[in-house]
Amino acid sequence: MITDPIADYLTRIRNAVAAKHRMVEVPASNLKKNITKILFEKGYILNYKFEDSEVQGNIKIALKYHPVTKMPAIRSLERVSKPGLRQYKSADELPRVINGLGVAILSTSKGVITDKEARKLNVGGEVICYVS
Length: 132
Hints:
About 25% of the residues lie in helices and about 30% in strands.
């Protein structure tokens, strides 16, 4: 049993990037699916595929690298809110990752969105992770 499935998800992606893998497979959940969609929309991953099975299903993620330098698109992936200490921010306290170059992913009443979208909608929520 995993006590923090989101931290496990982020760690699997971090380890795959460090090992220069092309694909990584993680167990699926609705929150992980939403985070994966945001990573794809923001250009941090190449592609993804949800494989549904009877019990849980998997998410296959194709990692993105620069064609010439082979540098990964994901430089850092950091878990912020942990099960032991949840981090909630209001709309005016939302963090800027690398002065706006990175993305903070939040779980809000409007769904799982980025910090920029949360500022537009003027909503706060739980800061899940930082991506840069």
